[in-house]
Amino acid sequence: MDLGISGKVAFVSGGSKGMVREAALMLAAEGAKICIVARTQGPIDETVALIEARGGHAMGYSADLTTREGVRDAVAACRTRFGDPDIAISSVMENIAGDFDDVEDKDFERFFVVYAMTVIYLAREVIPAMKTKGWGRFVAVGSGTAKEPVGNIHHVLANTTRPAAVGFIKTLSDEVARYGITCNTVAPGWIGTDNMYNYLEKKMGVSHNEVPDFLFKDIPARRVGRPEEIASTIAYLCSHLAGYITGNWIVVDGGNHKSAF
Question: What is the pLDDT of residues 17-75, one digit of tens each?
Fold first, then answer.
């Protein structure tokens, strides 16, 4: 399938690991020029090298995307090398688990920045040029907790702050659709990445690469997802073919969510 994005510039935050890395590889295979942005230089360099080894075009940039300055500088670096982003993927995560009595007000404030403001910062930097071009794709990687708060993994911080980003994306989509720009949120369920296994090991005492029975019991698919299953959804939403999909919250979780809507 030709996604129609050859030559497009894709800014991929969190693109050095896991499912978003897989999305970056898919976009690169379709001919997009990829700007990988994350905190740690090593995985960034590895991803860029892999894309280039496959004949693609990529650059890497290390930045703290929880600051407006970090996002601004990263987009500026992308612009200098490849031009203004046509595609933007926002994926910033931070693992602090706890129940309400375990966390402080400053933790809620921090998570609002991580899960909401990072999306807003990136939109401010990339949307104006997309408007000028008359084409753009903005995808935020969220979580099912934005709609169905999860209680058994001590996620009060994420449950509280993730819905803000979903509301922002929907509102933004309404404002920019007339310019040929789509904005969507992809909500992964339990996906078999290093981040997931590390979280389970740290918070639940589960050995690395072992999946707790409760996950299999609750997920109709009876398995965790594969990174490429999220990546393919993201890649499609970034494509020319997805021009009439906007303002949506798309769940990829093996049927784990309970709502029909």
Answer: 999 999 999 999 999 999 999 999 999 999 999 999 999 999 999 999 999 999 999 99
> For residue 183, which amino acid is it?
C
d(CA 225, CA 221): 9
Structure tokens at 248: 């949506």
> What is the C-alpha to C-alpha distance for residues 114 and 156, in angstroms, rounded to an integer?
14
The pTM of the whole model exceeds 0.90: yes
Cβ–Cβ under 8 Å, residues 34 and 57: yes
Angle of CA points 48, 235, 24, to nearest 5°: 10
**Of 50, 75, 65, 160, which Cα lies nearest the Cα of 118?**
65
CB distance 181 to 127 below 8 Å: yes
Cα 74 to Cα 70: distance, rounded to the nearest angstrom: 6
Instruction: Return the amino acid letter for 136.
Output: G
What distance in Å separates the CA atoms of residue 63 and residue 215, rounded to the nearest whole number? 34
